[in-house]
Amino acid sequence: MSSAEQFRTGFVALGGRTNVGKSTLLNRIVGHKVAIVTPLPQTTRRRIVGIRHDPDAQLILIDMPGIHQARRLLNQRMVTAARRALGEGEVAVGVIEAAARLKTGDRAFLGELGALRAAKIVAINKIDLMGRNQLLPLIEECQALVPGVEIVPVSALTGENLDDLIRTIKRMLPIGPPLMPADEYTDQTERALVEELIREQIFLAMREEIPFSTAVQVEQFIAEPERPLVRIAALVIVERDSHKGMMIGAGGRRLKQIGTAARRGIETLLGTQVFLELIVKVEKDWTRNPRKLAELGL
After folding, report:
1. Cis peptide before 228 (omega within 30 of 0)
2. Which domains does the chain have, with CATH numbers?
3. How many Cβ atoms are within 10 Å of 60's Cβ, its own excluded?
């Protein structure tokens, strides 16, 4: 059989509750930063695609918001998008957190995973935080909830056992030609990636509820190849006047800190010098406004 006939390709959905490390795992598998990562839950808002190209396979990985109890309209839409994306994969990888026993959110998610028709894998993430022998009760619980499921312990942070997870995914994918161009590693536009990099720095700089009530919208993206330079102007949208004051900070210092950190990441992404302007704008209760959510692609 020729190598072309053995080539495998397909969609791989990464699902789970919030803050289990799905985005870190996506970035590690793809080998590029396509999803932002922060210590706070509910960082991922949109369906994100990352593409891994190997000589024997192409993995089109779908990251999604964490499944959680959603109260605001924004969160409800995030969870709906996550459940829809979970059903799009030929392979569904349920990511749970290494622990002595399953957490309530992981248990609920595995119930949803078990109902899918796709080939299924449970990736037990963050094994760098505990010994392998301590995982046995957790593995038994997973097997009881999803009988016959493939279970792969892994550390997205260190890359431990990542090769085993990738081999397991490849084995489950259908044989077929690549579906995506070989030079692409995500389906996101540069504007969308820039918005996410700015939002990442907001999450890292701010605390409490403010990051969850903030959106970023690039309004201007002008390349000046002769310099070389890219000029970017972005709106930072908040829900309250008080949030605007906290976002800007005394003497504008906090907004400058966010902008400086975001600019460094954007320059790495674009491979050129960047001039970044951030403008904070109040859109009252935007997280509950269907029209505004649609405008932001949420």
Report:
1. yes
2. 3-172 (3.40.50.300), 190-295 (3.30.300.20)
3. 21
57 membership: H or E segment, kind and range: strand 57-63
Torsion angle of C-alpha atoms 246, 252, 253, 254, degrees rounded to 10: 30
Question: pLDDT by residue (tens digit) across 89-100?
Answer: 899 999 999 988
Cα separation, 254 vs 261, whole angstroms: 11
SS3 263: helix
What pLDDT digit, counting tens, does each position of 129-179 carry? Answer: 887 778 999 999 999 999 989 999 999 999 999 999 999 999 999 999 999
Q: What is the DSSP letter of 66?
A: P
Please choose, from the candidates 90, 91, 122, 125, the residue with its C-alpha nearest in 3D space to the C-alpha of residue 109.
122
3-state secondary structure of 270: helix
Read off the DSSP letter of residue 65. P
Which candidate, 87, 45, 91, places its Cα nearest to that of 66? Answer: 45
Closest CA to 125 of 149, 148, 93: 93
What is the greatest pairwise CA distance in the chain? Answer: 68
The Cα–Cα gap between 61 and 89 comes to: 8
